[in-house]
Amino acid sequence: MTPDEKQAYARQFPVQVGVDTAKQFHVLVAQGPDGRRSRPFRVDVSRAGFEATHAHLQGLFPSLSPTQMLVGLEFAGHHGFTFARFLADRGYPVVNVLPAHTNRSKELEDNSPLKTDAKDAAQIARLVGMGIFVRFPFLTTPYVELRLLSVQRHRLTVEATRFRNRLQGVLDLAWPEFLGQFSGLHKRTPLAILERWPLPQEFVAAAPQAVGRHIRAASRGHVSAERVATLRQSARETIALTQATPERRLEITQLLARWALVREQLAVVEARIVALVDQCPEARVLLSVPEISAACAATIVAELGTPADFQHPRQVLKLAGMNLTGRQSGQTDRGPPAPGQAGPADAPAAALPAGRPLVPAPGPVPARVRGDAGPGHPGDQGRVRSGPEAGAAAAHAHADRAALRRSPVAGQSPAGRGVSSRRH
């Protein structure tokens, strides 16, 4: 919706309610049909507190039903999601007021930078009445599961990276030459060697035949005997620190065990993601785009939601932080428009144009997206493509991705604005 449409939508409701959320309790202020705002009401985060809030609103406006009260919540992280679901189940329309809007408008209330929960709740109620809010999507199955798994996968990936970096730091002192012998610690062969011989002294003291058999089995014959001999020679001539070797060995062993546990959990989450992707038509279409894996498609769908939440492809780019921004005042023009920096950090911005075929077009569907060369039919307008049409739409999305990489909007790197082009 445009700003004018949001304001017209808010005027349809006689009552606008503002809620400033927190962990243990929320603060609620209601703005009545006469424009006056009620006294702040404390909402305890419990079943009894939510029911008391519902009774409080019914007591303030006994002649109005919940469907006639527009509730705007300013979320504090994940706090407030349970209250939003409770209100939606009771029939209250729920929208989201961004904290940045509340923060920028707080001094307009009383010309004071003072910030309190009661003042924020009153300001949120006024912003809702002015139409300054965004839609709050209530995801359904399997999109809820997909979003939770995507967040869990991201956290596990961060954990795995942290353990790998810690292990590299320990090896810089305990076995500095080891890292230069392999392309990465995440490979099967270096992990097998470190699990068996964490320190260079142990590796040199081991029997050459046992070392050769172990490395040959771990690498499946891809590591030659010459490389094994080079590794043994580097371990023999190491410059590693010799103090506190038992403690270094213990740290390496524990890091390997914790890293292995995270990798196992990550594999379970990714397997679940692949199973859920098959249940999401939008994710299946994204899989037809080159270089889009199941995990990447799940992240895009989890960050964007369903295509029904958007009316134009530009909304997708704006959510990803790729909308153009600039500054112009009078005759002053400070350079050409540049891509904005806001947007979800987890959404791969270079792959977001792949979701363009999923967004219903505002007008007749172009022939290259429809997959035919004939004139558009009334049934083609604003619908989601599937089957053979999805392949044509995916090819068009891939062309858009290539064009995006060459355009100034894509940023400085050839693969997009700060996003790697490798497979996830």
Descriptive labels:
single chain, 424 residues, alpha+beta, two-stranded antiparallel sheet, 49% helix, disordered C terminus
Distance between the termini: 34 Å
Question: If strands are numbered along the chain, what order do they take across the biggest sheet?
Answer: 3-2-1-4-5-6
Helical run tally: 16
Return Rg in Å. Answer: 28 Å
In terms of DSSP E residues, the strand content is 5-15%
What does this structure look like?
With 424 residues, the protein is α+β, with helices and mostly antiparallel strands. Helices cover 49% and strands 8% of the residues. Helix 6 packs antiparallel against helix 11, helix 7 runs antiparallel to helix 9 (208-219) and helix 12 (281-287) crosses helix 13. The relative contact order is 0.07. Mean pLDDT is 80; it is low at 347-351 and 365-424.
Quick structural overview:
This protein has 424 residues and is an alpha+beta fold.
Strand and helix layout:
Blueprint: H1 3-11, E1 15-20, E2 25-31, E3 41-44, H2 47-60, E4 69-74, H3 81-89, E5 94-96, H4 99-110, H5 117-129, E6 134-135, H6 143-174, H7 188-196, H8 200-205, H9 208-219, H10 225-236, H11 245-277, H12 281-287, H13 294-304, H14 313-319, E7 324-325, E8 328-329, E9 332-333, E10 338-339, H15 367-370, H16 388-406
Parallel strand pairs: 1-4, 4-5
Antiparallel strand pairs: 1-2, 2-3, 5-6, 7-10, 8-9
Helix pairs in contact: 4-5, 6-11, 6-13, 7-9, 11-13, 12-13
